[in-house]
Amino acid sequence: xxxxxxxxxxxxxxxxxxxxxxxxxxxxxxxxxxxxxxxxxxxxxxxxxxxxxxxxxxxxxxxxxxxxxxxxxxxxxxxxxxxxxxxxxxxxxxxxxxxxxxxxxxxxxxxxxxxxxxxxxxxxxxxxxxxxxxxxxxxxxxxxxxxxxxxxxxxxxxxxxxxxxxxxxxxxxxxxxxxxxxxxxxxxxxxxxxxxxxxxxxxxxxxxxxxxxxxxxxxxxxxxxxxxxxxxxxxxxxxxxxxxxxxxxxxxxxxxxxxxxxxxxxxxxxxxxxxxxxxxxxxx
Amino acid sequence: xxxxxxxxxxxxxxxxxxxxxxxxxxxxxxxxxxxxxxxxxxxxxxxxxxxxxxxxxxxxxxxxxxxxxxxxxxxxxxxxxxxxxxxxxxxxxxxxxxxxxxxxxxxxxxxxxxxxxxxxxxxxxxxxxxxxxxxxxxxxxxxxxxxxxxxxxxxxxxxxxxxxxxxxxxxxxxxxxxxxxxxxxxxxxxxxxxxxxxxxxxxxxxxxxxxxxxxxxxxxxxxxxxxxxxxxxxxxxxxxxxxxxxxxxxxxxxxxxxxxxxxxxxxxxxxxxxxxxxxxxxxx
Lengths: 284, 284
What we know:
homodimer; alpha/beta; TIM Barrel; 10 helices
């Protein structure tokens, strides 16, 4: 199954036989004081810089989230999306938990965006799915419902089925859905890594949809988080995740190696190209 | 299933609910000119140094291979094993394709060693299995037979079944067998990574035995091999490999992270301990 996302000049295909698609996560004020303050002041300079830096680091899609407490997201998100579109031609992921902000951003976006996200909660399904259908977007579906985020694979797979059914009933083709299996921090929930891998394998077998994972939650509270995130994304990719929401500069090298091992990089072209471009001191 | 290997003072358990066991691969003259020349001269100083360095780097088992063309392995292997036993108390893996050398090493070894290896070839099954039974050792079974190394999962799984059946018929309990699924270089055989992961999952489901992987072949001919090896061992571990034959210093950090994600490191004890012991400049 292939999920297509585009800007006016670029198309990105998320799919089993494609290289893993990397969504740059850095335009997000959560835990970033400087960015949060700039956004509150309506200053989009950091947003532009991060868009450029992530594209140069190899991001295939850029996530744009301006959710700061007290901010008017429905006014700011389309402005941020405009600023990013003026800076790079990378396709975008419009990221907000506020449907009005999503609609405002959908109105200004040029191309077919990915929307982050709908959940299995009734209020989300009812409000977000019609927007996705109306604007012909693709959407990330988070496996949580009105009872919260299930801890085991069984519960997560059940919510994934629900989202797929409701999306199809709303006129959204299955290939425009990307399921996010939602990992917990392994420091707090030691069994959650195994549960996520099982969830990915089952959703792939039962629904065939594309899947994404955020890497950074997994390592919360532990030292040397990059190492844990790297191990996690490699496993998730091998299990069947086809795109990742990550700090691209920190994850791209190991994912290119993973794609190579998984036969998703013909003649090792991407791997060798990235190796040649890497600064000398990082090579071994 | 648990495979137990021991020295007089240490026991190592290879198994599903255990941390991944790392077998240090560096005492092996293949591609190491200095070591090969020292071994030809009967000089075991490098062997002692490597035994100590790998143990300090966190090796659970040390592989000892002295196979240099023209050398009398049956005379040298037991001497090398003696030298390593005098240097460290880490359990050993006695490594030779020469059954006489294996028997000479088995005679001097104190404890229960791992033997590397038996294959599905008739001459190997007939000569090596009786030695394993006689000395009560554990043994690595390579999935190759008289037709060579199968490229697909189907062929590899078939040879694994054959080795398990023949070992059990020779009086060796299944828990004393560790199957090596034999990876090819992905640069030359792009589909071999996926085939190996499928092989590991099928052997785990069908036979339940412990499995090992050597990491280094996979990256042959490509730059920045450590990155590919790291991605490969993480996937192999997630698929079900329970021990790895590796350059321990280069692989241990990411495998500790993988074990943590896979719920094999209670309260992140091993991960955090290794982090604390790592030199400062390597921490992030």
